[in-house]
Amino acid sequence: MNAPVILDRRQMLAGSGALIVSFSLRGAFAEEQGAPAAAAPSPPGSLKTSPYLDAWLRIDADGAITVFTGKAELGQGFKTAFQQIAAEELDVPFASLKVVTADTRLTANEGYTAGSHSMQDSGTAIQHAAAQARALLVAEAAKRLELPAENLRTENGAVIAQDGRRLAYADLVAADMLHVQAQPTSKLKDPATFKVMGQPVPRVDIPAKVTGGVAYVQDMRLPDMVHARLVRPPSYGAELTDCNSSAVEKMPGVVKVVRDGNFLAVLARKEFQAVKAMRALAAAAKWKESARLPKQDDLLALLTTQLKSQDMTILERGNPSAAGRRTIEATYTRPYQSHGSIGPSCAVAQFVDGTVTVWTHTQGVYPDRQAIAEMLRMPPANVRCIHTEGSGCYGHNGADDAAGDAALLAKAMPGVPVKVQWMREQEHGWEPFGPAMATKLKASLDSEGRIADWNFEVWSNTHSMRPGSAGSLLAAQQMAEPFPVPAPKPLPLPEGGGDRNAIPIYTFPNAHVVHHFIPEMPLRISAMRSLGAYHNVFSIESFMDELADLAKADPVEFRLKHLDDPRGREVIEKAAQAFGWHKGQQASQDRGYGFAFARYKNLAAYCAIASEIEVNRETGRPRLVRAVAAVDSGQVVNPDGLTNQIEGAIIQSMSWTLYESVSFDEVRITSIDWQTYPILRFDAVPDTIEVHIINRPGKPFLGSGETGQGPAAASIANAIANATGKRLRNLPLTRKRIKDAIDA
Amino acid sequence: MMTLRVNGYEYEVDAEPDTPLLYVLRDDLKLNAAKYGCGLGQCGACTVMVDGKAVLSCVTPLVLLEGKRVTTLEGLGTVSEPAPIQRAFMEEQAAQCGYCIAGMMMRAQALLQRNPKASDDDIRAELAPHLCRCGTHMRILRAVHRAARLMDTAELSPSDQRGAQ
Amino acid sequence: MTKSRIIGGLFAALLVGGAGVIFALTWRPPMAAIDPPSARTFDADLVRRGRELAAVGNCSDCHTTRRGPNFAGGLPVPTPFGTIFSSNITPDPETGIGRWSEEAFRRAMRSGVDRGGRHLYPTFPYDHFTHVSDEDDRALYAYLMTREPVQAPLRDNRLSFPYNQRILIAGWKLLFLRRDAYQPDPGKSAEWNRGAYLVEGLAHCGACHTPRNGLGAERATATFAGGDVDNWQAYALNAQSPSPVPWNEDALYAYLCGGWHPDHGTARGPMAEVVSNLSSIPAGDVRAIATYMAGVFGAPTPDRQRQGEAVLAQAKSESTVASEPVSEGAAIYAAACATCHESGRAPPYGGINLAFSTAISAPDPRNLANIVLSGVRPVEGERSPIMPGFAASMDDGQIASLLKYLRSHVSKQPAWSGVSEIVEEARRTQTAFLQTAAGPRNAPADPSQRDQP
Ligand code: FES
Ligand code: FES
User: Fold this and answer.
1) SS3 A654
2) Which one of B52, B75, B98 terminates a domain?
3) Can you say whether the dihedral through the CA atoms of C204, C205, C208, C214 is positive or negative?
4) Which of C148, C378, C451 lies at the smallest CB-CB distance from A736?
5) At residue A524, does pLDDT exceed 60?
6) Strands (E) located in C210-284
């Protein structure tokens, strides 16, 4: 179990290279050919884009089974979940499998590991591939035993006949057996017979992480590797006017100073030598900076009036001019927020014989490969990106940029492995932030206290500036011959970006939703866990409480009154009941209760959260006392993993919601460490968090990694309103803002 | 050259005296557990034990360590022979990305060695210097409580004694 | 801030006059209990005014414990004579001041006597509060009576005989308590007078910053010459100020509002709580305090002015540490401190240039020891400076050599004596303070960056 992940892969390459290469070439071929021709109903999940079964599964002659996923383990624990799925559908013991994650030479192209898609895309593909592989093995056994397939069963990695004869998979498998295209449908196991799926199997990656095994790209050490440190510009657009690096080059251990336009780095034999050299180099570098940032204290005006937007009506239901008897309006804002990974971004790269290999914690090895290849002006086939875990990223942080940095530096040091480690200030100052957003809501109630009409407008930048082209990488932007930043685009619905979850799940007779897409980006931004859903759900679910208040209705009852979706209703009821929510409840002194609900993207997991908050009236300081969540993510693969994700989502969202905002002046980002970008610490950790899972055996997997962000935020805001009688609409809901509201 | 005692072994380390312990552990001794998070003493990811006390290795230069005993997570136990604190974190599945966890475990270990009966408040207060971005806090707390129980009931295994050196 | 200051020599006071005489002179009748007035009976503006005054008086710092309810008391105040616990000043009728009339409250403020007629220990600084105007007492009363009542019985003080005899307090009062209202100085500006009223009265700055005599009273002849609190040194705020760069009104104002100043560093220890409170009161009052205190400091002598300018000039020049570190202290400084203190990043988030450090130029190294041991803790969820503590990574000997090195290299002052003992004592006492006090309840540092979206 302690086997280092990276060594694993390398051993595998060394040990059984031939087999893999032949497989992978075909796999890659299939992938580049696009979807199979003329297959009318396409197979499920990522089998659509990578239809060959051997892109997902390999059974060796010695019985070893390997599962391949194009998704990256980011700490969500799905490597374990995939192993469970494959073990279940193949009927082999859990421990007999190995999972290989995103690697452009080994695994299918599954794009990004994002949007809570891993279970839906990759999990589904693996499930079906495994089921179909099992059927092929059974068919082969039927042929050899001369028995009808129906009379055979599988168990423990073997096909077994009624008379007790058994053929191990290893004996049945033939070289090309799995190199077939997936069928549109598979004979999946009856959930009632599940042995591994649905069980809280311990995660495979945890033992190494709690004993100091090699677990992260930061832990990689290749022979003769050198350490690189960057000197990033002090601000966006700063130009390096002068840098006399001769003294730095003479510092102990320094191997090279690399300068390419505004890209500046130093390489040294030992890590701390690199750090010291970086400091000296930073002192020697002279920059010309320019004031190009907006005022941070009026983001609302910036978004809604100063920056140009492209306006799209994304929902028009009923009569837009309908109005009920009592109308209210509200405006909500969200600041720029930081991914704030605990481990700053890191990558290792090596350039050998015209090929560069990059070990990276990117969320998308294929798009990253594309971008790096373009930056280095090399064919993509000569770039290999291997996903290697990093610290949790929660979206597009500095990972891809660090990969680009490493690749550029590796090319400057042919043959030598180069490790790039960003410093804390670089991560905070240069990562692409979660974009600032504003929403304006207006709705009215009819005489029965129902919502008669609903108007929702959201202003936001794009939520994805992920690579795919070189211009997305910092290094490529800073080179002497820079690549242009690609034009930002809105992500299309139904998933959406800034408008993710902007369309209400509730059944309002008249509704009007507008997305104001803002192409111009004063700050560097990209995808952050749940994208626009965080703010949209915060707004919708806060406003639902404001309307419930107007209707003098209980917030839970009020939501149920407007919701038809039966699974949504069940999740709401479950959370309310487990929390002890009841009509007319009264929290004790200084406390308040809040409730919120959403279905992520209106198509993934359902999540309802009830919170209890305590507010110190003298200081304004809020404390989440407890939270109770209910979640429906379809068929559950690993309940403990799911619980872990939801617990984490609530705590992280609480930190975003109560504390976090990126700060800047006209020139520089000023939140560049944990002093200036404070996040939750242990003194504010809740007493308890409960997660209740509603399992749906046999139903499709629904992504759940991001479903908690919006509901957690709104339930906290609603609880604060309940505790103080004051409604706060501008994130973050800081102590100071709460205090000012109380004192007002 | 300086002699550094880590996990019961003595190493001759060829590093400048101002080198933070973190870099010596990771770069010279090739140990993985202590993590670089900020290098500024703000996050706790780099925590190890020095003479039984939790110390931020990123702001602890070599020059302070003459004659002292350094313990890292590697020195507590292994996957096959985990120390109680490691068993507890595995049993509680107390990690998401896990990047912060080694530091948390070292401070918890130091706390429990000093005060095996640490209360929930004690544990929360002790862990205040540590950040976790994944939001694994509830599990971390549970794991530390579990470790306290395990240490209480379990006989000290050889690996614990190494940790307690 | 008078937490750890108990009055020495109470016993001696007893000898000044016979107990019977004292009794006759100092007996105070109980005052009638009232029914707790409803919060609604108080004018909202009066309550708001009271909130600001309570911040000026730092009421919450002594009357609230870490994690405890607001104003419910129970903070242990260690003294040479034993431990005194602060009282519950919430309007709880049984355990707080819910049954106190405004008159009873005012009597407590003016003469240190509770509603029942008991003399209160002067850890409650009524020797300053006697200057507070009726109007301000009314506002404070309104504010406290509209707080959340908390049932929290008074904890018994742990004092040995004879200090547990409250009659001694009466004797002390006879000697040291002057019950005079504040008299404005017509020769000074309104702002100055306002500052004087706040500083000498409610803000009770002298309680920490003025040394005490053998009987534990502030020495009238040495006001603001520096005192002690919670094992921290409260620096002299007069001409003897140890600050390398002389203070002026603007610097004081910025420091008191924002919690730091580029030429003086960041408030920490008990002063962090004070600036945390001052950051929430009207700027005009802070300005008035700064005006008055600038007068107390006085204009620097030409000599001192020159020295200050030299320090500033030197700090602006390129980094001074170039030569190979020779002593152990120098090596520790270069390796453990310089990364932040010479990072070139502006304070408060970059370490202060130590040439400006008052702690290094102070008469003894206590504050420096405290800060090296404990660092500066982050304020929950708010932008605030962080410094890691070195208690676990440096032993006493290493800290002592660091302190000695800093003193000899950074400060112009003569070497300290007894450094090792002070470091040992600092290690013993620091934890107690940090664990019980509520600490700064908000982060005043760099208000320009706070709470912006
Ligand atoms: S890396 Fe040492 S405290 Fe952050
Ligand atoms: S588990 Fe990821 S930072 Fe703590």
Assistant:
1) helix
2) B75
3) negative
4) C451
5) yes
6) 227-229, 232-234, 260-261, 265-266
Q: Is the confidence metric ipTM above 0.85 for this complex?
A: yes
Q: How confident is the model at residue B159 (pLDDT cuts 50, 70, 90)?
A: very low
In ligand 2, the atom with minimum distance to the C-alpha of A342 is 3
A628 with A555, same domain: the answer is: yes
C chain contacts of residue A661, beta-carbon cutoff 8 Å: 452-453
| Dihedral sign, Cα of residue A144, residue A148, residue A149, residue A151 | negative
Instruction: Report the length, in residues, of chain C.
Output: 453
Average pLDDT over all residues of chain C: 88
B96: Cβ below 6 Å to ligand 2?
yes
Residue A562 exposure: Cα atoms within 13 Å on the Cβ side: 32
Q: What is the CA radius of gyration of chain A?
A: 27
Closest Cα partner for A27 from A180, A166, A206, A193?
A180
Mean pLDDT of chain A: 92
| Residue span of the structural domain in which A276 resides | 217-290+339-430
Q: Which of A430, A456, A481 is the last residue of a domain?
A: A430
How many whole angstroms from its chain centre is CA A349? Answer: 24
Tally of domains within chain B: 2
In a domain, A642, yes or no: yes
Q: How far is the CA of A278 from the centre of ligand 1 (A)?
A: 18
Residue ending a domain, choose from A386, A401, A430: A430
Contact C386 B56 (CB under 8 A): no
Q: What percent of chain C lies above the pLDDT cut of 90?
A: 65
Q: Do A155 and A115 reside in the same domain of the chain?
A: yes
The tokens 């990223």 sit on which residue?
A393
Helix, strand, or coil here: B120? helix
In the predicted model, is pLDDT for residue B58 greater than 60?
A: yes
What domain range is B11 assigned to?
Answer: 2-75
CA of A215 to the centre of ligand 1 (A): 18
For residue C94, the tally of other CB atoms under 10 A from its CB is: 11
Q: Which two tokens stand for residue C109?
A: 């403020």
Predicted confidence (pLDDT) at residue C4 exceeds the cutoff of 80: no
On the question of a cis peptide bond just before residue C162, with omega within 30 degrees of 0, the verdict is yes
Query: Two tokens at A469?
Result: 């082209």
Look at residue B128 and tell me if it is in a domain: yes
Residue B17 lies in a domain: yes
Chain A CB contacts of B62 below 8 Å: none
Q: How far apart are CA C94 and CA C247, in angstroms?
A: 47
| Contact criterion met (CB < 8 Å) for B64 and C67 | no
Residues of C with Cβ-Cβ distance to A734 under 8 angstroms:
381-382, 451
**pLDDT at position C83:** 85
CATH number where B69 lies = 3.10.20.30
Which band of pLDDT confidence, cut at 50, 70 and 90, is reported for residue A179?
Answer: very high
What's the confidence (pLDDT) of residue C221? Answer: 92
Residue B162 within any structural domain of the chain: no
Angle between helices A709-724 and A735-743 (to 10 degrees): 30
Residues near C63 by beta carbon (within 8 Å), at least 6 away in sequence: C71, C72, C73, C75, C86, C87, C88, C89
A643, two tokens? 């619980």
| Boundary-marking domain end, from B26, B49, B75 | B75
Q: Is C234 helix (H, G, I), strand (E, B) or coil?
A: strand
Q: Does B64 touch chain A (CB under 8 A)?
A: no
A219 → chain B, closest CA residue: B32
Per-residue pLDDT at C19? 60
Residue B165 resides in a domain: no
Buried b (16+ CB within 10 A) or exposed e, A171-186: bbbeeebbbeebbeeb
Ligand 2 centre from B145 Cα, in Å?
Answer: 18
Question: In DSSP terms, which residues pair with A383 in a beta bridge?
Answer: A356
Against a cut of 0.95, is the pTM above it? no
Residue A743 belongs to domain with CATH number: 3.30.365.10
Angle between helices B137-153 and A639-659 (to 10 degrees): 120
The CATH code of the domain that includes B96 is 1.10.150.120
